[in-house]
Design the sequence.
RNA sequence: GGGCGCGUAGCUCAGCUGGUUAGAGCGCCGUCUUGACAUGGCGGAGGUCACAGGUUCAAGUCCUGUCGCGCCCACCA
């Protein structure tokens, strides 16, 4: 016997282990089954499950369970990402906290050992947390981006790209992280608006001998320290104010260097003074200007962001912000500071901490020619070989892909895939998959064995992530899984990594596999807090999914997320919502409990089409409709529709009506109708469990199992059961009409009872007017139900005009309960008058509509028909209301 | 500057290709501990669908504009 409530804690772990032990997560080997594959967005090994993961994985698990039940060989390929920077930082901090050593103190080898050690100890946390959510990943295939196999894939792709000329080494400005001392890609930089200043400097123009004159040219900057690296001043070639100065020179203060004034359209005459200082080594725009004019690139910062030897001695070793103050002070002292304006501008910060200011720095790095790789990736989406859901994200994708910049793929870190490049004594580059290969190439190149030095840098984490859809399936080997599951089916992710990841997978997949990595990209919402803020540790507004699981169970959390996963909108998560869906679980649990108590046991030979009772025929039809709706919704990635359909079906149809309506029967004598109803109820419950399983796997499986203990033994676990195929032939329109009539009648009687304040416990007789033959038959069939659910004592029929009415009930109840006692007559009179006025305006409006020829001629038949019916109904209601009003007034008098 | 999206009940949000009387959860009011469920039942209040125009027989839904809000990209000497 089921307990009164479902206790997730006692069930979840047990069922999960049972599934896993039974191998339920492994795709079927049956070659006749269609393959279905999702690769998980690999969480960082350093990660803890946050709400975004919970949503992301609830969606994937829902799809995987759905497709598995639909008979596909479903593979959910799991794994984790080594997360270069994040992981390195965590281990560095740990080293410092526990042993007081820096990574440089112990050296690269030892440090990497520590990272691996750390990974072994605590890297599995996020994976366990995914299990708690109920994620049915095939854990036997779990991969890690730094595994030997995946690392081999990385090396091979790198070498291929290099040999195809798509990876190259270049010296240009990169986004430099002065704390971590590494380059970052454009995407890892976040521009944040801050209040700052604009300093205006007057640079003295030099005479023919290079000596400063009194004439000044004013430039402005938000980064005064960079003036130490200025190598020109630019003015617009057509700017009348400065045209004549092009070709002359400026005596740069402090640095005391002569720099040219050049004409370049980059200088905007409208902005500031119209003249702009050019610092090619510290500004992306200036870099371009410098290239055009062949200006020297004078880098004045070292890798830690301190002023280097290229600047005057007074500034050596100063941090960039100290240097800023110093430069401003010195400029002021020298009389070169014209003015300071307050100024809001955006400053590049590192995207992770949002606290370190990124410096453009001139360094040698490895680049990937993304423009070339983007071409086929753009075409694939244009041609629809990969589709975004919702569609509008394609615009975002195109926008970025069409303006894609070279991708800086090297990082000056230790944790990651070391770049397979070696340098000869003359810095000649040898790129090869192994050192041996590189050495033999070098021997060929130099004509003798030559020692090589390996490039110490590692690759951007996202490089290996880009290979994920095929590297996890075994590439570069031609594995059975690769053949079977690539391309994969759908990628599920949030929009914030479309650029980081989706775009890169598209490029890499097409380059390496010559096919898109997935046919669909489902972009889901971001989970925010109740105020719509992005959840973040610093804001302290994080809701921990694990806490919610502890409190309400994994099913409740999953259902909440799925029910709210409307397309394209952010999810503002409120706890009350989770609670509501937990209650939904309880409701279903108790419905099952009710079935169990009433011996509704699934009969293996039960034929849903053979039912005789209209109520059962109706209910079976409702299940079919729901199966149809849920299937279509999940197929279309409309998870909220699917969840909503299930919620309404279970609660508002199955529990509220069906179970209530069959109570008189179940409590009555044994007989064919009772037997049929028990079997039908059990059938409906089973179908419901199946439909709900991808959404609430634990509760449904538990009920499924428990019923197998007391009823007919189950042939298998719910997780492996076939998805209900909607049989539209089982939808009996007549039975539905009849039951809707019964439900409507009960609702009306209840509503009227309440309106006239009949105590809930009171049993009343009811007079129904205008009963025709069909109505009489129906009443006969459902008499018990009507009496029970509407608390009627008796039902009398008259031949007078139409159906159950306020008037009739008022009339009859007066027999038992004096009207005056239960009704406040003045209030009631007022209410009725208002009601009458309202109905009258309704009638007028409908009359106007029906009087409109265009409407009658053009609107679909059923719309016009509906309007006519409504008109008649309204007129009838008005008559009744008027009668009731008159009666009240009589009673008052 | 370019792009995307949002504005519907007190709160959080659904509402697909225009078509009955605009829905849900939570909250609120009333009522009921009746043998599945108080994590519940039953009944109810609450909305000029941001605003202004337009298309249409018909607009929350389509178009234009206005106001307010959010996000992404780029730029800002």
Sequence:
């Amino acid at each position: 016997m089921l307990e009164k409530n479902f206790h997730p804690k006692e069930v979840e772990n047990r069922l999960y282990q049972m599934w896993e032990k039974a191998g339920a997560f492994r795709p079927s080997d049956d070659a006749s089954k269609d393959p279905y594959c999702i690769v998980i967005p690999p969480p960082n090994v350093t990660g803890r499950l946050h709400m975004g993961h919970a949503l992301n994985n609830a969606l994937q698990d829902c799809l995987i369970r759905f497709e598995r039940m639909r008979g596909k060989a479903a593979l959910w390929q799991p794994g984790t990402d080594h997360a270069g920077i994040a992981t390195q930082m965590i281990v560095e901090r740990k080293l410092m906290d526990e042993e007081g050593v820096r990574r440089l103190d112990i050296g690269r080898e030892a440090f990497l050992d520590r990272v691996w050690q750390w990974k072994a100890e605590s890297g599995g946390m996020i994976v366990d947390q995914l299990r708690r959510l109920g994620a049915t990943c095939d854990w036997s295939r779990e991969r890690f981006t730094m595994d030997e196999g995946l690392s081999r894939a990385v090396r091979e792709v790198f070498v291929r790209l290099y040999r195809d000329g798509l990876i190259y080494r270049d010296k240009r400005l990169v986004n430099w992280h002065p704390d971590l001392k590494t380059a970052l890609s454009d995407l890892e930089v976040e521009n944040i608006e801050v209040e700052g200043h604009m300093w205006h400097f007057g640079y003295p123009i030099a005479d023919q001998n290079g000596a400063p004159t009194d004439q000044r040219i004013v430039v402005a900057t938000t980064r005064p320290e960079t003036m130490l690296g200025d190598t020109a001043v630019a003015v617009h070639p057509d700017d009348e104010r400065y045209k004549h100065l092009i070709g002359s020179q400026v005596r740069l203060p402090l640095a005391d260097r002569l720099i040219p004034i050049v004409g370049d359209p980059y200088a905007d005459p409208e902005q500031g003074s119209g003249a702009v200082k050019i610092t090619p080594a510290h500004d992306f725009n200036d870099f371009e200007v410098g290239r055009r004019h062949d200006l020297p690139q004078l880098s004045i910062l070292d890798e830690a962001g301190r002023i280097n030897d290229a600047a005057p001695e007074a500034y050596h070793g100063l941090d960039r912000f100290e240097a800023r103050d110093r430069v401003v002070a010195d400029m002021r002292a020298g009389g070169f500071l014209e003015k300071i304006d307050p100024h809001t501008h955006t400053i590049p910060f590192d995207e992770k901490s949002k606290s370190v200011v990124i410096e453009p720095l001139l360094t040698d790095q490895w680049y990937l020619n993304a423009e070339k790789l983007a071409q086929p990736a753009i075409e694939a989406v244009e041609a629809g070989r990969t589709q975004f859901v919702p569609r509008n994200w394609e615009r975002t994708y195109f926008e970025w892909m069409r303006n894609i910049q070279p991708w800086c793929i090297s990082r000056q870190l230790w944790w990651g895939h070391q770049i397979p490049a070696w340098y000869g004594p003359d810095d000649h580059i040898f790129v090869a998959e192994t050192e041996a290969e590189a050495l033999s190439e070098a021997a060929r190149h130099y004509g003798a064995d030559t020692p090589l030095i390996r490039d110490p840098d590692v690759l951007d984490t996202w490089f290996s992530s880009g290979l994920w859809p095929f590297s996890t399936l075994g590439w570069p080997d031609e594995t059975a899984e690769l053949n079977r599951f690539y391309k994969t089916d759908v990628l599920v992710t949030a929009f914030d990594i479309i650029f980081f990841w989706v775009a890169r997978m598209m490029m890499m997949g097409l380059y390496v596999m010559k096919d898109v990595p997935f046919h669909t990209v489902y972009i889901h919402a971001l989970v925010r807090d109740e105020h719509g803020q992005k959840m973040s540790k610093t804001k302290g507004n994080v809701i921990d999914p694990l806490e919610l699981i502890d409190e309400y169970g994994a099913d409740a959390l999953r259902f909440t997320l799925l029910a709210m996963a409307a397309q394209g909108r952010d999810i503002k998560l409120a706890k009350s919502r989770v609670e509501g869906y937990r209650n939904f679980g309880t409701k279903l649990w108790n419905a099952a409990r009710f079935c169990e108590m009433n011996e509704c046991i699934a009969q293996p030979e039960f034929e849903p089409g053979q039912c005789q009772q209209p109520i059962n025929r109706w209910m079976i039809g409702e299940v079919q409709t729901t199966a149809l709706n849920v299937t279509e919704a999940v197929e279309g990635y409309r998870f909220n529709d699917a969840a909503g359909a299930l919620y309404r079906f279970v609660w508002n149809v199955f529990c509220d009506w069906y179970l209530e309506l069959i109570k008189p029967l179940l409590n009555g004598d044994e007989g064919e109708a009772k037997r049929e109803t028990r079997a039908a109820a059990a059938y409906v419950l089973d179908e419901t469990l199946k439909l709900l399983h991808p959404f609430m796997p634990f509760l449904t499986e538990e009920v499924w199992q428990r019923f197998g203990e007391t009823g007919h033994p189950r042939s298998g676990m719910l997780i492996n059961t076939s998805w209900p195929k909607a049989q539209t032939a089982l939808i009996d329109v007549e039975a539905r009409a009849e039951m809707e009539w019964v439900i409507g009648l009960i609702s009306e009687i209840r509503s009227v009872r309440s309106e006239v304040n009949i105590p809930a416990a009171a049993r009343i007789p009811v007079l129904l007017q205008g009963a025709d033959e069909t109505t009489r038959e129906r009443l006969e069939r459902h008499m018990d139900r009507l009496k029970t659910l509407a608390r009627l004592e008796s039902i009398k029929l008259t031949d007078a005009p139409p159906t159950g009415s306020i008037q009739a009930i008022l009339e009859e109840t007066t027999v038992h309960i004096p009207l005056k006692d239960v009704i406040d007559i003045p209030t009631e009179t007022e209410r009725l008058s208002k009601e009458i006025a309202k109905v009258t305006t309704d009638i007028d409006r409908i009359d106007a509509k029906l009087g409109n020829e265009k409407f009658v001629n053009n609107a679909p038949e059923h719309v016009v028909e509906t309007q006519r019916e409504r008109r008649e109904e309204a007129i009838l209601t008005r008559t009744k209301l008027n009668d009731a009003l008159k009666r009240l007034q009589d009673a008052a008098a």
